Amino acid sequence: MPTLLFINACVRGRDSRTLQLAEQLLESIREENKKDMAFHIEEIRLSTENLLPLNYERLQRRDELLANGIFSDTMFDYANAVAQADMLVIAAPYWDMSFPSTLKIFFEAASVVGITFAYAEDGTPIGLCQAQDMYYVTTSGGYIGDCNFGFEYVHALCKLYGIEHSHFVSAQGLDLEGADVATIMEQATIEDFI
Ligand SMILES: Cc1cc2nc3c(=O)[nH]c(=O)nc-3n(C[C@H](O)[C@H](O)[C@H](O)COP(=O)(O)O)c2cc1C
User: Fold this and answer.
1) Domains of the chain
2) N or C: which terminus of the chain carries fewer CB neighbours within 10 A?
3) What is the pLDDT confidence band of residue 7, given thresholds at 50, 70 and 90?
């Protein structure tokens, strides 16, 4: 059964509107694929993970493992999960023009040469991930406009990983005075990027 990896970077637990939107998306993906290709959904909830940014010691350990071809170490669990997934869904609230820092740490751990991407002899990157689609779900207090740095970063990384199609799902303006939150949530939009 194909695996959908759900990377949940929502911080406010059940109060999170981003999580609510992501759950709606997961439900519609489930419905769409019910007949031919039911997904097994695997969630990584970043708020309960022990996420550590790379420091000098961990960087050296990582380099040593890679130099010895040890790709199965637990240090590479996130990279292996991303590489082996058949679809990615990422839920992250719009924070400070991007996303919560846990998601950056997650991608730091997931971006591993030899697992999620590699380089050809001429230096051209080669994506090693199986998935073709990544859905990035967010909600924001105001309007994101030209400052969609979180999605753009993840979209660029996914390209590096070989994941060709990115989809941006959002409900915006939720914290503006007088906002009709229920209606904005119902009218959430999806934009497709190649
Ligand atoms: C730490 C923090 C930073 C935020 N930064 C922004 C921002 O830069 N721009 C914006 O429009 N809203 C910002 N917001 C508002 C959130 O984007 C908005 O409330 C969103 O719906 C929260 O998602 P959630 O309900 O899933 O937690 C911020 C909220 C928090 C808590």
Assistant:
1) 3-193 (3.40.50.360)
2) C
3) very high
Give the pLDDT confidence score for residue 34 in this predicted structure: 74
Q: How far is CA 84 from the centre of its chain?
A: 14
C-alpha angle 116-122-127 in degrees, rounded to nearest 5: 20
pLDDT digits (tens, 9 = 90+) for 85-100: 999 999 999 999 999 9
Ligand 1 centroid – CA 100 distance (Å): 9
Ligand 1 atom at minimal distance to the Cα of residue 10: 26
Closest Cα to atom 19, ligand 1: which residue? 141
Query: What is the amino acid identity at position 185?
Result: M
Supply the mean pLDDT for the chain: 96
β-strand pairing of 133-139 with 3-8: unpaired
Q: What is the pTM assigned to this prediction?
A: 0.97
3-8 and 87-91: which strand pairing?
Answer: parallel
- Which atom of ligand 1 lies nearest, measured to the CA of 139? 21
The answer to whether the beta carbons of residues 151 and 184 sit under 8 Å apart is no
Tell me which residues have their CB closer than 6 angstroms to ligand 1. 10-12, 16-19, 93-97, 139-142, 174-175
Q: Whose CA is nearest to atom 22 of ligand 1?
A: 93
Closest CA to 132 of 192, 55, 72: 192
